[in-house]
Write a structure and sequence with these properties.
This protein is of the alpha+beta class. Helices cover about 65% and strands about 10% of the residues. It has 4 domains: about 210 residues, no CATH class; about 150 residues, no CATH class; about 60 residues, no CATH class; about 140 residues, no CATH class.
Length: about 600
């Protein structure tokens, strides 16, 4: 059966639109590849624009990211909207890149001065910005309906993943072809794929082709998206169970093991991110029928976001209170702010009567704008993490919160960028000779030295409650230089800690027992005056502080080991599990002198 002339005429506009989109996307990919190659060669030859650091980085970032605006919007956006959005993207990307280089390490070359966070921030801004612009333009409204945001965003997300996979498969085939032809003595393909003039354009064109292929097969993309979302949605109950079990276990373990990881805030924020992602996978656009178990899991996820975010904020505040601001901590604070917005919005959605989680829609749209605002603030002079952290650290030094010997000059050199260098130059003229010498030494460093040891901070030692009362920690213990990996949790200053001085092995010399949650780590001194962890106790069931205040701490034999007795409760002293010579040190815990 053939198409009638009228039907053929109706199909022509669509066919012409597909051809125009194909040509536009392939041309964009080719232009991107050629421009990237040109910038790469300019950097190799050290010719303009590579001689202008800020300009060179701005061009790199614009050519790398802005073409994705065209690839995603050429068949969906009106020409005027696409032109305005592309121009705005060029200005924002170029500005962020130039500022990132200007504030970065003055000795770095070109884009090397940009931190990885800048690349991620620009990618996030382009992605989020585009998916606020396109749905609004499609509906001719400033704020589109949530189902449109959902459909466009997840469609492009799946397209991006499939396009990256397609491009990777293309290169795998080229490497396979190279290997096959090399078997028979033909190395032309191997030489071809090693040339940058081929690699850059070929990669960009194949990615553009993949975007076009997935765009004209929109139903297939939506099918893949549906499968992916369904699978993710059924992970939500498991994630909720994990989060709830974690929170319910905390009262029994205390917070000290959490802070001992030194990455508690990052882990907690990651848990937040998974809860948010999986909740959206279950909710989708709000029009699909959803299983009851997923509805309840989504409501619980919304509520669980609050305590997890509070813990993340508390952990970060402890770290900042102890060590001051750093670029990473400022970025973490921004993430906590964003997580707080989601936690409040999702909790309201979970407890509000009516259609399930309906307020999630407004929260997602509002938080998209918030994320854009936060990213722009972080990577512009508004809230520049490097500037704020340098100012804070110098303030701590001037205010006496940290001594000249303990101050981290290396962080100024390698984390502070331009502002850190300026601060070090000022410190080289400081009246304090210790500050001057250490600042001068830091300026000369070409690479960050690996920090392997540290001495306990005086502030953290002040927080330790010592039992029996009236006793003091041995001077050799206070002045101990610890390996960073084995630093006792009590010496990190997160929380008030307890120390018990008691002879656990009957040799007449008291060991130092430092609390770790409701248990103790046992530290013993050797003949050279070096303290090492040689064991730990089992958990104390009850109010440990109250029992210690009541007194009556002693060691009782309980063959083949020993028990630490506090009041009427016993805690078994167990040797440290280790290998090699360290095992010899642990045997003293289980043997008494005759």
């Amino acid at each position: 059966m053939t198409d009638t002339p009228h039907e053929a005429a109706d199909l022509q506009p669509e066919s012409r639109a597909v051809r125009r989109a194909t040509i536009a996307r392939l041309a964009t990919g080719l232009a991107q590849g050629l421009l990237l190659y040109g910038l790469f060669k300019a950097g190799e030859a050290k010719v303009w624009p590579a001689t202008q650091r800020e300009l060179y980085a701005a061009l790199w970032m614009v050519v790398l990211f802005v073409p994705f605006v065209v690839l995603a919007g050429v068949s969906a956006l009106r020409f005027r909207t696409l032109a305005i959005w592309k121009a705005l993207a060029v200005v924002v990307v170029a500005g962020l890149a130039a500022y990132g280089v200007w504030t970065g390490d003055p000795d770095a070359k070109g884009v090397d001065a940009l931190k990885p966070q800048t690349f991620l921030a620009i990618a996030a801004l382009i992605f989020i910005g585009h998916h606020l612009v396109q749905p609004a333009d499609m509906e001719r409204r400033r704020i589109a309906r949530f189902p449109t945001y959902f459909d466009v965003t997840w469609k492009h997300g799946v397209q991006a993943v499939l396009s990256v996979g397609f491009t990777g498969a293309f290169w795998l085939l080229l490497f396979l072809a190279s290997a096959l032809f090399k078997l028979i003595g033909v190395d032309a393909i191997e030489k071809l794929i090693q040339h940058e003039w081929f690699a850059f354009p070929a990669t960009a064109v194949m990615f553009a082709a993949a975007v076009q292929l997935t765009d004209v097969r929109a139903n297939l993309v939506r099918g893949v998206r549906t499968v992916a979302l369904t699978l993710l949605a059924w992970l939500l109950p498991l994630m909720v169970l994990i989060a709830a079990a974690f929170l319910l276990t905390l009262p029994f373990t205390g917070l000290e093991p959490l802070w001992k990881t030194k990455s508690a805030t990052a882990i907690l924020l990651t848990a937040d991110a998974f809860l948010i992602l999986l909740t959206n996978a279950a909710y989708q656009d709000g029009t699909e029928r959803t299983a009851v178990v997923l509805k309840w899991a989504a409501r619980l996820a919304g509520v669980l976001l609050v305590p997890i975010t509070v813990l993340a904020a508390y952990g970060l505040s402890l770290r900042i209170g102890q060590y001051g601001l750093s670029p990473d901590r400022i970025v973490a604070a921004a993430c906590v702010l964003v997580a707080t917005g989601y936690a409040v919005g999702y909790t309201l959605a979970a407890v509000r009567p009516g259609a399930w989680m309906k307020a999630l829609e407004a929260t997602n749209i509002a938080m998209a704008f918030v994320v854009i605002a936060v990213l722009l603030a972080l990577f512009t002079p508004v809230v520049d993490p490097r500037r704020l952290s340098v100012d804070d650290q110098i303030g701590r030094l001037r205010g006496g919160k940290v001594t000249a010997d303990a101050f981290d000059y290396v962080a100024l050199r390698f984390d502070g960028g331009r502002f850190g260098r300026q601060a070090l130059d000022a410190l080289r003229r400081d009246p304090n000779p210790v500050v001057r010498s250490k600042a001068a030494a830091a300026v000369k460093l070409e690479g960050r030295p690996y920090r392997t040891t540290l001495v306990a901070a005086p502030d953290s030692l002040k927080k330790i409650k010592i039992y029996p009362k009236g006793q003091a920690l041995p001077k050799s213990f206070v002045g101990q230089t610890w390996n960073v990996e084995n630093e006792p949790i009590c010496l990190q200053g997160y929380l008030d800690c307890r120390a018990v001085l008691v002879d656990t092995d009957g040799d007449g010399v008291a060991e130092v027992l430092l609390s770790a949650a409701n248990a103790f780590d046992v530290f013993k001194v050797d003949g050279a005056g070096v303290w090492a962890k040689t064991g730990q106790t089992t958990l104390f069931c009850g109010d440990l502080d109250k029992a210690l205040e009541a007194g009556g701490v002693h060691v009782a034999p309980s063959p083949p080991a020993q028990d630490l007795v506090i009041g009427d409760k016993r805690m078994r002293i167990q040797p440290e599990l280790s290998c090699g010579p360290a095992l010899e040190a642990t045997t003293v815990l289980t043997q008494k002198k005759p």
